[in-house]
Write a structure and sequence with these properties.
With 94 residues, the protein is mainly alpha-helical. The chain has 5 helices and no strands. The protein has a domain of 65 residues. It is elongated, with a radius of gyration of 14 Å.
Length: 94
Amino acid sequence: MADKKDSKYQKLLLGLLLDGIGMLSYMIPGIGDFSDVIWAPVAGWLMTRLYKGKVGQAAGIITFVEELVPGLDVIPTFTLTWIYTYLLSSKSNK
């Protein structure tokens, strides 16, 4: 049981790190939008690897779009997906 709990919090820490990487584009004026074009598909793919099934697929698409659209980088999609998966989802409450 401890391994499952450890994995849960490792995903949270990794998600926070990946959300931070996604927000780094604001730190580099002029290069930010170009880096988003590269980061968007990578972030979407990483999301599908972190969260399997329909949740991962939907979150991957949302992450891709969120990273690609200028101004939406502030949305912490990895962290929000973790919150949905581990705190709000009915599967985790059973």
